[in-house]
Amino acid sequence: MKKKVAIFASGTGSNFERIADDSRLKEIMDIELLVCDRPGAAVIKKAEDRGIKTFVFAARDYNSKEDYEKAIIEQVKDLDYIFLAGYMRIISPYFLENYKKTILNLHPSLLPKYKGKDAIAQAYNAGDKEIGISIHYVNEELDGGEVIEQTFLTVKENETLESVTNRIHGLEHELYPKVILELIKEAL
Ligand code: GRF
What we know:
globular, EC 2.1.2.2, Rossmann fold, Formyl_transf_N_sf, phosphoribosylglycinamide formyltransferase activity
């Protein structure tokens, strides 16, 4: 039986797109839902174009984080996995207590280095020659759960931040679907 998954994203959704269009993944999972915390984000149309249901919310419409997380949990409680792909909110301990299944995150740094925002720029500005990405399990710490897989590129002489950023996205688009594929195949 195919696994049922949700993807959480806040922005452009290039990773969402790669996951949704991966023919290997289509055989083993169905994306039942996109959760997005930014009304108007480009990722929403990407989901709609593919006939994927969306749950879009604005945090300001809720009294507390627990309130909107409750609404999300209601939507995902029967799904087997959650994949965070550029979702810019921290999953709280409350969420983790109420959704006990696997949640993965993609983070554009070689964790444990450069947790949080602007990780690529942080690594670039620090002069790192090797800049990479991590896919990890989500726990209650920001970008803190066990790392599953990492990969990196070597910054070229005089390479701009823009070029490094584009190449990092290229690594993400390859690695995230591959890790998801391996994870689900093991569970089938
Ligand atoms: C990616 O760089 C991801 O690593 C980070 O947010 C970005 C999302 O990009 N967490 P996109 O929306 O998938 O294009």
